[in-house]
């Protein structure tokens, strides 16, 4: 247990260093040497935990997402959860844009989609139980893919500044669509 905590703390320290460096330079210009120097750890420690800087970036973004998902019951607190996500995007636009510049839109979308997939599936499963409806697995996969792609695309547009709506308006539109379309689609089955 003690080792697990130490390992987690080391990963967080490396991630914090990467965040700090990304404020002053692009991801492609950051080196492992800079990260380990900032953290005062050796190179082997970095490579014990991560394959490369992109692996560290992926872990860092996943940890941030996990914290969001743990903090909220998305069916009950969906407005608060979406506000939290948008606030996170606002606070980390520079980091997300650096990641986007290095990874590209498809990789970034894939990253967001992986994390949003479970959330959307939870919503769909809850609505189908509430309505006592069975969804064919193929159609359920389609719905999950449809909504995760849409949400991931909207998040990318938002942090890149391509979404012109203000935060509250964007949240209200997203909630309206999720709260109305998923139950209506499942009801029609």
Q: How would you describe this protein?
A:
- The chain is mainly α.
- Helices cover 80% and strands 0% of the residues.
- It has helices at residues 2-22, 32-39, 43-49, 53-71, 78-91, 93-130, 137-160, 167-187.
- Helix 1 packs across helix 4, helix 4 packs across helix 6 and helix 6 (93-130) packs parallel to helix 8.
- The protein is elongated.
- The model has no long low-confidence stretch (mean pLDDT 86).
Please give the radius of gyration in angstroms: 19 Å
Count all strands and give the number.
Answer: 0
Uncertain residue segments: none
Percentage of residues assigned to helices: over 70%
Please write the string of helix (H) and strand (E) elements: HHHHHHHH
Outline: elongated
Strand content: under 5%
Ends apart, CA distance between termini: 48 Å
Main sheet attributes: strand count, strand direction, barrel closure:
none
Please, what is the average pLDDT?
Answer: 86
- Structural class computed from helices and strand pairing: mainly alpha
Number of helices: 8
Which helices and strands occur, and which strands form pairs?
Layout: H1 2-22, H2 32-39, H3 43-49, H4 53-71, H5 78-91, H6 93-130, H7 137-160, H8 167-187
């Amino acid at each position: 247990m003690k080792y697990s905590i130490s390992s987690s703390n080391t990963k967080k320290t490396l991630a914090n260093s990467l965040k700090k460096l990304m404020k002053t330079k692009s991801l492609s210009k950051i080196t492992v040497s800079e990260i380990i120097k900032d953290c005062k750890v050796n190179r082997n420690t970095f490579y014990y935990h991560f394959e490369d800087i992109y692996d560290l970036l992926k872990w860092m973004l996943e940890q941030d997402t996990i914290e969001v998902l743990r903090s909220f019951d998305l069916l009950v607190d969906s407005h608060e959860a979406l506000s939290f996500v948008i606030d996170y995007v606002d606070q980390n636009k520079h980091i997300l844009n650096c990641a986007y510049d290095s990874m590209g839109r498809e990789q970034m979308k894939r990253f967001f989609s992986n994390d949003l997939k479970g959330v959307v599936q939870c919503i769909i499963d809850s609505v189908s139980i509430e309505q006592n409806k069975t969804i064919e697995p193929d159609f359920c996969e389609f719905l999950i893919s449809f909504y995760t792609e849409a949400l991931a695309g909207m998040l990318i547009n938002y942090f890149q500044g391509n979404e012109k709506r203000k935060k509250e308006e964007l949240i209200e539109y997203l909630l309206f669509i999720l709260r109305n379309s998923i139950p209506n689609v499942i009801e029609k089955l």
